[in-house]
Amino acid sequence: MKYYLLTLGCQMNLSDSERVASVLNAAGYTKADNEEDANLIGILACSVRQKAIDKVYNKIFTWNKWKNKKNLITFISGCVLPADKERFLKLFDIVFAMPELPQFPKMLTEYGITSPMAIVPEPNNPIDEIQLFWDVKPKYDSSFEAFVPIQNGCNKFCTYCAVPYTRGREVSRPSDEILTEVKSLAEKGYKSITLLGQNVNSYGLDKHGEEITFAELLEKIGEIGEAINNEFWVYFTSPHPMDMTDDIFHIIAKYKCLGKQIHFPLQSGDEKVLIKMNRKHSVEKYRETMQSLRRILPQATVFTDIIVGFTDETEEQFENTRKAMAEFKYNMAYIAMYSPRPGATSYKWEDNITLDEKKRRYAVLSEELQKHTYEYNKSLIGKTLKVLVREQDRKPGYLSGHTDGKIVVRLASDNKELIGQIVELKITSAARFSIEGELVEKTVSC
């Protein structure tokens, strides 16, 4: 029997999908190349964005029509709000929360009949359930890039965000398990490892001193890198400004295996909007942390997240966000037009910024971002940089990858053996969101 898995949303869902694949493979299923060839089709959903939920409905309506012609079981998991889950119970054969993944094979014995087994009850002990999930060994989709979950859930309750209602409160994975997984990946030759969590830098705080801090976790990973000959880069996402401390930057500066790229979400550059978002940090606090970052890690690139058109955002408040972008000169910004999500606090508020205005503000910030990305990328011309080659580029005869700072790089080559390797390139040209280089050294990293 063949399965097909559609993954929507963030890197956490991608990581979760590797564990779903592992469970299905162990149960005797094989992966189908496309959904048409599968007898079991599932989605890892994302209730955080309306577009992702719309795609779920489009897909399930199509798949349910296929049931008239062939035997087919459908399931859904991932980040699903309670309101969405109630609707999905009528459309999918099996609906389950991700911590219940170890029970999934048992659910499949019902052959897609929606039953009490398919309806996930409130867990007696959420910590035990998520630990059983982490115990599932993932089937990594890549031979050189991997995601390692270190934490699940969120305690911050930003008013626009549904994550606390889809993943629950913060639970930190035991550090010995994280370190064992990272070491194993590094020894196997993986080149890029990303630590995942809704608020990675609050790691360990839920253990009240019984677990190491996030900075200490990075220190131990850095020590692993020093002891292993293989070259690799470790990243993390997403941190919260409230919990970001200078010792994290000092440790990243100390160890070469810790990637020199920081994802540092701003969301808004206006104080009143941040309060309305319940972000628990001020623009000034963010600025102070950015100054520390630039001082301690001057070579690091900085990525951010920003929301435009949040409820009641005035033109002046939006302008403050544009000014913040101009001040902090990000290397990348993931800009989202605000959309209310059921369950989040802001869902109760009027979504009173028009779509056209949101699009205009999105365009203004995108233009502001490009000024700084282009200037930075031009500054790299003539330099020799290490680059992880990731895939064939859309442009024929080219490969693409990224630097230690996750700047996208293209190189003229059709040598597929370079994919998955770290090579040295001399940068020859720059565009707004990428650079191009020539291979200057045939020897690749071990």
TrEMBL record:
Recorded GO MF terms: 4 iron, 4 sulfur cluster binding; metal ion binding; tRNA-2-methylthio-N(6)-dimethylallyladenosine(37) synthase activity
Superkingdom classification of source: Bacteria
EC nos: 2.8.4.3
Domain MTTase N-terminal: 1-113
CC cofactor: [4Fe-4S] cluster
Pfam family, one: Radical_SAM
GO cellular component terms, semicolon-separated: cytosol
UniProt keyword terms in alphabetical order: 4Fe-4S, Cytoplasm, Iron, Iron-sulfur, Metal-binding, S-adenosyl-L-methionine, Transferase
Residue intervals of the Radical SAM core domain: 140-375
Residue ranges occupied by any TRAM domain in the UniProt entry: 378-441
Alphabetized PANTHER family for the sequence: CDK5 REGULATORY SUBUNIT-ASSOCIATED PROTEIN 1, MITOCHONDRIAL TRNA METHYLTHIOTRANSFERASE CDK5RAP1
NCBIfam families xrefs: miaB-methiolase (TIGR01574), MiaB/RimO family radical SAM methylthiotransferase (TIGR00089)
Free-text function comment from the UniProt entry: Catalyzes the methylthiolation of N6-(dimethylallyl)adenosine (i(6)A), leading to the formation of 2-methylthio-N6-(dimethylallyl)adenosine (ms(2)i(6)A) at position 37 in tRNAs that read codons beginning with uridine.
Protein name: tRNA-2-methylthio-N(6)-dimethylallyladenosine synthase
Organism encoding this protein: Plebeiibacterium marinum
Gene from which this protein is expressed: miaB
